[in-house]
Design brief:
Layout lengths: L1 H10 L4 H8 L3 H9 L6 H11 L3 H9 L1
Helix pairs in contact: 2-3
Amino acid sequence: MIELLIEARRAHGLTQAELGTRVGQRQSFISKVELGERRLDAAEFIELGRAIGADPYALMRQAEG
């Protein structure tokens, strides 16, 4: 699921720093999430997906398939 989140962030032309700003976090938080050093709970995943401009539920469904 994190790979899909990364792909969505890049597809929407956002840097880690820009995404961090949108969710009130530092770039290092986004980096740790993307590197797998920091796990996300479902609410955080949804928040990041929405901040990117992606449908977080569609990303979850895509990860299942």
